[in-house]
Structures are given as C-alpha cells and as structure tokens.
Amino acid sequence: MAWKIMIQGTMSNAGKSLLCAGLCRIFKQDGYKVAPFKSQNMALNSFITDKGLEMGRAQVVQAEAAGIEPEVSMNPILLKPTNDVGSQVIVNGEVLGNMSARDYFKYKKELIPDVMKAFHKLEENYDIIVIEGAGSPAEINLKENDIVNMGLAKMVDAPVLLVGDIDRGGVFAQLLGTLLLLEEDEKERVKGLIINKFRGDKTILDPGIEMLEEKGNVPVIGVTPYLHVEIEDEDSLTERFTSKKSGGLLDIAVIRTPRISNFTDFMALENIPEVSLRYVKNVSEFGTPDMIILPGTKNTMGDLKWIRESGLEACILKASATGTPIWGICGGYQMLGEVLSDPDKVEDGGMIHGMGLLPSETVFTGKKTRTRVNGTFAHVEGIFSELSNVAFEGYEIHMGETTYVEEVISKEHMSRIQDTVSGKISEDGISDGNVYGTYIHGVFDMEGVTDVIVKALAKKKGITLEKASGMDLKSFKEEQYDKLADGIRSHLDMERIYEIMKENVEEK
C-alpha cells in the first residue's frame, strides 16, 4: 500500500502547490517513487501529455519535481473557467462539456469513480502519493459531496497537513478558524500545521506558535520561509502578473487579458537578464515596448472585446504601424486575424472582426485540438527572419481552426510541425511583416528561439547586450526544484512527516 500525505490550505494561494512540488522532490531525493495527485483542479494554465490529453499544470510541475512523466491520472478533473459562472469540464484529459457552477456542483459526485480509478492507478505504481487539496476545506457552503479536500481525504484515507499563509496576514486565525469549522472526524485527519511564506526572525513567532498548538491541539511541524524560486505557476493569483523586473534593456509587454491562459509560455523570456517582461492590463501601463505578446486565452472573442473596449487594441495597432513586433500565441494568434466566426456558439457565438494584422480567419468548432509537436520555422518575415530553420517544440490546445484568407491562400505558413502523438506532418502559423502568430504553446522555450528574438530586438534598438543568451530551461528547472526541496527540507520536520505516513498505513 502506497504511503500518502495530503496538503490542504486555509485559502487559495496559501502555497499548497509549491509545497507539494517540494515534497515530491524531497521524497525522490530520498529514493522513493513518488507521484502527485489532485482530484479536481481549476486553472486556465493547462498542459498536454505525450498521449495528447489535458491536465492541470500544477501536477505537471510536481511530476517534474518527482522526476516522472506527467499523466492525467494525476489530475483526473480539470475545470477551465469560460466566464465568471461556468467552466469547461475536462475528465481524464478529454472535454466532457461546458457547465455552469451550479450544474457542476450537482454533477460532480458522478465523477467519484473516475477520481478513485485514477488514484488507485497511482497507488499501484508508486511508493508515495503527495495529494493536493483545493481552496480551503472550511468552505462550508461547498462541503456537501466534496471530492477535493476532506471528502477526498476520507475516500483515499489520507492524513492531512494544513497550510496557512502568513504573508497575507492573520495566519493564526486562518489555521484555528479552519480547524474550528471542520467536523470532528475531519479534524482528526489533520496531523500537522504549516506556517508558510514567513519572512523575519522566527523567535518572534514562537509564542504565537505555542498558543496555536494549545488552542488547536495540533502540532506545528514547520515554518517555511518565503522561498525565491522560479517555478511555473498556474493560478490566476500568480505574482508574475504584478512583479516588476527592473534593469532590462529590452521591454516586452504581454497583454494581460481577463481569461489569460498558459502564461508559462513566457518563462524563458522572463529569465533572460537583459529582458524586462511585464503584464499590461490598461493603457496607462502600455508604454513603448520593444515587443508585444498577445497570450493564450480561454475566451478569445470575449477577451478581444475587452482589449478593444480597454483601449489597448488602439495601442497595439499604433505600435505595429511603427514596426514594433507583435506575437500572438493561440487565442492571441486568432485575435490578430481579420475575422473570427463562431457558428456553433463554442464561445460567444456570431462573428467579430479581428485586429486585421494577419491575413487570416478563424472558425470555432466543437472539436478541441490537443497534442504535442516538434517543429521547425520555415517562412518567417520581418525582424525575426533568422528564425527560419530554427527548431522548437511545444503543444497545441485550442478550439477553432485558423487559415489564410482567400486572397493569399497559397502563401507559405510560418512553420512545419509534426504531431508527436499521431506522427502527422502539417503547417502552423503565419508571419506578415513584423506580426507573428502560432498555435504552439512553449514556442519560446528553446534557447535557439529566444536567442534569435532577443538579438534581433537588440539590433533594432541599436544596443548591445552583455547577456543575450537564453537558458537551458530543463536544467534551470532542475536547479529550481532542488533549491525548493532544500528550502522546505530545512524548515519542515521531515522525520515527523515520514512517521505520519507510516503510522497511517500501520493503523489499517
């Protein structure tokens, strides 16, 4: 029987995902076969496995930390919000359909067999399962038929560590309030408390910890510091959107739309020393960027309307007219075209004019493209013409098909790609002047691609960069996972965590 440990939090963004990734790395370092698990994830930042199935990125990161390939059994249910009251429901990597929050709340109990099947599959193949909860177990309005917090802990019989975020204030109230709202049998599952994101002198915290343990009757097994690690986020509460990197000689602006997805596409660019990459959500923040990126989105037509109404479209068109390079990824690529049509009401329905920066048109259909690809740039115009013949890899995840408009139907596409799932060879993307569009997420991840882009931008700006090179993203991630594990191991009582897992098995 696999050992299990579950990390639940007092709120969203308490640091559950990062702690789970750190524990996965620690257990791997200690010689165990370890896998992550989260029964239900809500995120727009998803991933496509090597089998062409879709899952939440948090469990992908945790799988990487564990040194294993991601698989959908690590995240059997993924909810991708399409608006404020509804989501696309993905089960075992495939689209089940769109549901309102109320309809899904009524339906989710039907998915328990899928959750348990996925979990048992992991149990058969791994020594330890690190389970992540969602939000808070004290959301009393959602406790009925819970399948992701204490409801899941009961189903898989897992001991729980409860995490509070001291950086956002009120951590003692967070932890004690959560314990107070748990049923007695649920509270018995909580074997330890973790105070997360601490900055300062821990001795000042000690009196509060003593009182917390006395009132909650649960031991504090660690106070983890605010760790400065570069690890991919999936949450809409990511600090990447508000962080300000100064000193970069090149300024890249990513348009922060309401339904932005897969913003991890830009991690490689973010980590180039001479680049300042920032997320822009209004005209006052726009400035005079050296390159503009329109990212992926879960609602292309809705976010295009938002860009138009916010005044950012006018800024983008003006910048393009002066030669500023524009990149569109996935939904951003669709927006750059001339027309977007949605006859089947996959999104908002009807037809909307695009920005008119690419000679393309998009038609949304109910079929979702999900696959991984290898590719090579072919026909690349403008400032980035030296990308021609440069290799890349990534994944596609989109509704809709984009083609050239009839007037230029014979024009060559920007790249040639091979579907690594089916083996099919096809074409992707369009470049027209200094405007570029592609469906490939991760297209900037390879060092050869970022090198060309950064050097071309520097040449256009008339500057020389000391450190123009990108990085080996895979090696960089490995370093960051080790750094995360070192930080967590030195501040958590790992001996006690092993005892908790062992005791849970011995009691059965």
Automatic annotation (TrEMBL):
Q: Where is the CobQ/CobB/MinD/ParA nucleotide binding domain?
A: 5-226
Please list the residues that make up the active site: 330 (nucleophile), 441
Write the protein's name. Answer: Cobyric acid synthase
Q: What does this protein do?
A: Catalyzes amidations at positions B, D, E, and G on adenosylcobyrinic A,C-diamide. NH(2) groups are provided by glutamine, and one molecule of ATP is hydrogenolyzed for each amidation.
Per the record, the similarity remark reads: Belongs to the CobB/CobQ family. CobQ subfamily.
Q: Which GO terms describe its biological process?
A: cobalamin biosynthetic process
Query: Could you name the domain of life of the organism this protein comes from?
Result: Bacteria
Domain (CobB/CobQ-like glutamine amidotransferase) spans 251-446
Its gene? cobQ
- Swiss-Prot/TrEMBL keywords: Cobalamin biosynthesis, Glutamine amidotransferase
Give, as in the UniProt entry, the pathway in which the protein acts: Cofactor biosynthesis; adenosylcobalamin biosynthesis
Q: Name one Pfam family in it.
A: CbiA
Single GO molecular-function term?
A: ABC-type vitamin B12 transporter activity
Q: Where are the transmembrane segments?
A: none
- Give the matching Gene3D superfamilies: 3.40.50.880, P-loop containing nucleotide triphosphate hydrolases
